[in-house]
Amino acid sequence: MIGSIPVLRGLAGFNKDWLRSDIPAGLSIAAVGLPSAIAYPAIAGLPPETGIYASIAAPIAYAIFGPSRLLIVGPDAATMTVLAAAMGAIIAADPAAANIDRVAIASALALGVGVFCILAKLLRLGVLASFLSRPILVGFFAGVSLSILVGQISRFTGVKIESDGLLAPVVEILRKAALIHWPSLLFGLSMFALLWIVKAFDLKIPGPVLVVVISVVLSALFDFRGYGMAVVGDIPSGFPSFSLPAVHRMALDQLVLGSAVIFLVSFGAGIVTARSFGSRTGEDVDANQELIGLGAANIAPGLFGSFPISMSDSRTAINLSTGGVSQLAGLVSAATLVAALVFLHSALRILPIPALAAILAAAAISLIDIQELKKIWRISRMEFVFSLIAMWGAISFGVLNGVVVAVAATFVYLLHKTMFPRDGLLGHIEGRHGFFDLARFPEARPVEGAAVFAIQGNILFYNADYVRTRLTTVARELAPRTKCFVLDASAITHVDSTGAVALDTVADTLAKRDIVFAIADLSQESRGILERAGVIKKIGTHNLFNGREEALRALIGKSAEQ
């Protein structure tokens, strides 16, 4: 460790016995990762080799700077979809950017994501991972998956699709049905069916690996390219050289916005993955430390002609299932992919595009977590609605704007949960200690001569009017012989200036009825706000108490426990 940077933590305590586990794990990760590394770049209109570069550079960088022993980073379908939208926004904002190599734009965005990660670490903003809640992410990814599926129409059929959106491409392909290259469509659907057969029968060999091997062999035997089927084409046999993308030639505002959105989705989804696997292995996940690993894992591809990445659930799952014990597995997978670039580039160049479409379509469908949606529906109807809002945002407004909709939906959900804090009058139950909500416990009785009222939430500008209305309504309905009104503030951690005005109004209402207004267990921060607002002066410091029992003893001369 150097300061708070987790240098080589994933390899700490290394011993040679780990080689027996990490080498097979690394080979398995590379085998599973190669098909997706070739396929995923197509989502953003990037050449296939960029996915291999990302799958090499990112794991090496994470092995050096990442805190986790077992997490594997790499290309991710959802991140690629957001990347495609961000690249489109940059090109649309500045026509001159259309002349810039798309790889350069993707590399610039990768560097931007890395910079956002480092800044977020310096500001200790690991909490940003929670900006997109699990229900919001599930809905958003379902919408993204539909976008990916529609994007494969051209690759399955060989027909150029010019329209955007969800339904327009479907209508366009129906209109251009006469142009469909049927051998491509049939082969792509066959490979898609093969993927599901492998999954259904739980075969040991990964479906994408089988599809790539079979597709390359058949393409070589029957010359698919000669029959008009599109193939991957030339793939460079070496690793790219170090280079900085021409950021000065791109629309800076769109570059920053695109990097921020990709960062939010990549980090938010990545931490969900990290915590999911961490709960299985007992490994602690520190979101702030993961920012360093993820930042380095994005900067490295950006410097070597590639694109932003995320924490990969499929690669991490393979690492765990094959017994990987350290980041050496990630390094082995990177070395294996370097060897694939050198020795297999001639075979990969004849890989049919419809096979990649099948892999992408299967990956997209895997993003639709039906079981999780059912679980959300069972647990909370409201959270399920927000999942659907996030899904609708990604489909209706495009992926980039869909992220904004998802974040907005998260904030709306949070506001809804806190705008109407739970509250109620408290009383005693004979023979039992403590205070009980009179509405929830019919056997509870109010304290004679007093009213004890609890609010379980903060009093802030967006709910202050609701709290004021509740308190003044209760105050007006108190029995004539009520001497005091005790506000239990034990669950109120913060009151802002608007909340102070609301409590000032409540104090006036109670004063008109000659009822003492007292506050119990007020936090120091909230007390400071109320003092500066003049509320404490109005009710008197002698009416501030450490607890409800103390307040009742002082105000009505009775024990709080009846």
From TrEMBL:
Which SUPFAM superfamilies does this entry report, sorted A to Z? Answer: SpoIIaa-like (SSF52091)
Q: Does the keyword Cytoplasm apply?
A: no
Q: Name one GO biological process term.
A: transmembrane transport
One protein family per Pfam: Sulfate_transp
The STAS domain extends over: 440-555
Keyword Transmembrane assigned: yes
Q: Domain of life here?
A: Bacteria
Task: Give the chief site where it resides.
Answer: membrane
Q: Name one GO cellular component term.
A: membrane
Q: Where in the cell is it found?
A: Membrane
- The membrane spanning regions, by residue number, are 25-46, 52-72, 79-97, 103-123, 135-153, 173-197, 209-230, 250-272, 325-344, 350-368, 389-415
Q: Which UniProt keywords apply?
A: Membrane, Transmembrane, Transmembrane helix
Q: What protein name is recorded for this chain?
A: Putative transmembrane sulphate transporter with STAS domain
